[in-house]
C-alpha cells in the first residue's frame, strides 16, 4: 500500500537525525552514553517502522526487524560482553537493511522517480519529500556507521566465564 506524503513524517526525518547526531556526538567514548544513545535511537526508528508497517500498511517496511534487534542488543540486557557483540551485529544488520535498497534510492532513481515509486506522488510535495528522504537516508547510513565504529572501539569488556563444571575458582580439577 502506498501512503500519502505526511508533513509530520517528512519533518521527523531531519529532526530525528539532528537529535540522534546531537546525542551520539555528545556521548564521546562513554560506554553508557554510547549504548544509551544507540538503544534509544534504534527504539525510536523501530517504533517508526512499526507504525509505517502496521498502521500505514507499508508491506515492504522491514526496518522494525533490524532496529528492534539493535534496540534490544544495545540496551544491555545481554550483559557487558554479549551486549557489545550483539550491538555490533545489530548495527551491521541495520546497515545491511539500509544498504540493500541504497543503489535505487540514492543512485538509480532521481527524486521524481523515488516519489513516484514510494509515494505515488510526483507533485512538488512528493518530490520535496524525496529530496528530504535522500538526505535522511545518507545521514542515517553515516549515523549507523559511526554508531558501529563507536561501539567497536569501546573498551574491551571482560570475556564471559568459561564453565568447567566446578562451582568455585578454588576447586581443583581431579
Word description of this protein:
It is a single chain. The longest helix is centred in the middle third of the chain and has 30 residues, at 79-108. The protein has helices spanning 7-27, 31-55, 63-73, 79-108, 111-119, 124-152. It contains 6 helices and no strands. Helix 1 (7-27) packs parallel to helix 6 (124-152), helix 4 (79-108) runs antiparallel to helix 6 and helix 5 (111-119) packs across helix 6. 72% of the residues lie in helices and 0% in strands. The chain has 174 residues and is mostly helical. It has one domain.
**Low-confidence segments:** 163-169
Approximate helicity band: over 70%
Major β-sheet profile: none
Can you count the beta strands? 0
The arrangement of helices and strands along the chain is: HHHHHH
What is the rounded Rg? 20 Å
The residue-averaged pLDDT reads 89
Structural class: mainly alpha
Number of domains: 1
- N→C terminal distance: 66 Å
Provide keyphrases for this structure.
174 residues; 72% helix; elongated
Amino acid at each position: 500500500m502506498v501512503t500519502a506524503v505526511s508533513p509530520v513524517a517528512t519533518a521527523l526525518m531531519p529532526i530525528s537525525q539532528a537529535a540522534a547526531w546531537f546525542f551520539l556526538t555528545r556521548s564521546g567514548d562513554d560506554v553508557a552514553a554510547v549504548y544509551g544513545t544507540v538503544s534509544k535511537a534504534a527504539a525510536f526508528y523501530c517504533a517508526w517502522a512499526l507504525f509505517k508497517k502496521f498502521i500505514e500498511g507499508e508491506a515492504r517496511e522491514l526496518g522494525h526487524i533490524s532496529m528492534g534487534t539493535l534496540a534490544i542488543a544495545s540496551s544491555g540486557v545481554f550483559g557487558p560482553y554479549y551486549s557489545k557483540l550483539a550491538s555490533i551485529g545489530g548495527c551491521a544488520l541495520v546497515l545491511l537493511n539500509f544498504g540493500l535498497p541504497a543503489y535505487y534510492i540514492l543512485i538509480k532513481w532521481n527524486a521524481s522517480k523515488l516519489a513516484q515509486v514510494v509515494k505515488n506522488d510526483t507533485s512538488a510535495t512528493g518530490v520535496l519529500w524525496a529530496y528530504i528522504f535522500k538526505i535522511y537516508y545518507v545521514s542515517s547510513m553515516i549515523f549507523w556507521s559511526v554508531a558501529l565504529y563507536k561501539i567497536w572501539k569501546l573498551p574491551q569488556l571482560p570475556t564471559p566465564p568459561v564453565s568447567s563444571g566446578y562451582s568455585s575458582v578454588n576447586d581443583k580439577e581431579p
